[in-house]
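Researcher: We are triaging several targets before committing to wet-lab work. For this one, the compound of interest is magnesium ion. I'm pasting the protein sequence and the ligand SMILES. What I need is the predicted three-dimensional arrangement of the protein with the ligand bound, expressed as structure tokens, so it can go straight into our comparison scripts without reformatting.
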Amino acid sequence: MPEPLLAVTALDVGYGHVPVVREASLDVSRGEIVTIIGANGAGKSTLLKALAGLVRPTAGRVMLDGHEVTGFAPEKLVRQGLALVPEGRMLFGPMAVSENLALGAHTRRVAAEVAADLERVHTLFPVLAERSEQPAATLSGGEQQMLAIARALMSRPRILLLDEPSLGLAPKVIADIFKVLDALRADGLGILLVEQDANLALKHAQHGHVMRSGRVVMSGTAAELADNDDVRLIYLGAWHGNE
Amino acid sequence: MSSSELLQFLISGLQNGAVYALVGLGFTLVYASTGIINFAQGEFFMLGGMLAVAGVRMGLPLPLSILAAVLLSAGVGVAMERFALRPRRDSGALVLIIITIGASMVLKSLARHIFGPNEMALPAFTPGPPVLLLGAAIDRQVLWIWGLTIVAVVGLTLLYTKTKLGRAMRASSLSHDAARLMGIDTAGVVMISFGLAAALGALGGAAVAPLTQTAFDVGARAGLKGFAAAILGGLGNPIAAVVGGLVLGVLESLSVAFISSTYKDAISLVLLLAVLFLRPQGLLGKSGREKV
Ligand SMILES: Nc1ncnc2c1ncn2[C@@H]1O[C@H](COP(=O)(O)OP(=O)(O)O)[C@@H](O)[C@H]1O
Ligand SMILES: [Mg+2]
């Protein structure tokens, strides 16, 4: 069995002395979307921040493509092929769309490759080409999310971490964005997707994990989770009678 | 007062203002990359002048002395960031600001110890009679001050807008976390900002030393003026700090012309307080820091 692209083993993460994530384990392989679902405050964002290097894990291990990267700084992890689209997007608001994308390519050395990737993200999100010289802060919510994803792609990651890309967006925009995520996955990108909208996440993912109070309490294929009674009841809103 | 006298006051205001602008640019640069006020900034102004004098006394040619003074000061700025501030960077802005105050005291005492307590003079960059303009006399050194300020501002603007480093600096000033996610070494950006800020202050100190003399204790006053210039401009962007410096210099000079030289130094304090109370974003600043 091939080694997973990202292998997280028994990771503990906290802020100061307050533990938030406990013994989280998960794998992401090439060409796979793995989702983490769970209620607000479960620790999903904290886990992603730790994987991207913004918070140091206190225990456990992170392997990226067979190399240990536990506790690496974000600027190092980007160079290893890991990119995070953070909660709240964290765009450079006063700077132009084009500058945000150029910053996404900060670690890249070959101008021709960067130009090719810029063309690619403009093909994926044509609106970014139209808005190229506009400050990022003036974009609509959906456009900002597209820019955040495009900016992350400019580092040419092997694994992309996404924190609630659907939050606050209209269904049409969400559909556009997830179409792109599916295409990226089909191209071989590994995607770790944190979502509150479990319905949406399980429709696009191959594997999923449920987090509760900082722990991964359930794991399985997306189909298994979608069929699980607890998941249906708590996260898929089965009591509303949908599905 | 005749118009040529008025022009003379204006020129002297723009001379001081350009120096305030150089020192003020340093405050702006450090503030942009760290969010803190570096109260040691004035000491780099002092170091620029004193080190240049020391170089000349050691027999170095003047241009080389000035270059060495600016580079050494930049080195001191970098070292201060690396060894005094970075180890405590998680302690919060207040602690860091207090460390800069401590650093300014250390630099001042060291300078007194090394260079002695006396005033010192640096030779004019290009000696010669003043240049006459519309009946007013402009000292050649003043032309140097203006020229160097323009070069510094243009250089800084090009750095900010046209280079990858400048883009990384702007990104870091908006959000360190977001910048690090792009792969930017934000610690390096902070260190470069301190070095550049120190170099600009030192350049101001060396450029004005032939006109005013210099001493180990000139840093505090220069720091206050530069700080006022930066606040007047809103701490936001380099151009604003330059405008702030020039406005401050001219206002001081006009107060000497029309009121009394007694109040010259009070002007910057009054302006500082007025801006902080009435328009904290500065004369040219937009309201609030821009962040997404
Ligand atoms: N910067 C922080 N400092 C301290 N505690 C935090 C911080 N960020 C999040 N937390 C806490 O960690 C817990 C998990 O938060 P988070 O990871 O954002 O959850 P989720 O993304 O699943 O909603 C929450 O109790 C939250 O209050
Ligand atoms: Mg979250």
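Researcher: Any quick observations?
Model: Chain A has a mean pLDDT of 94.
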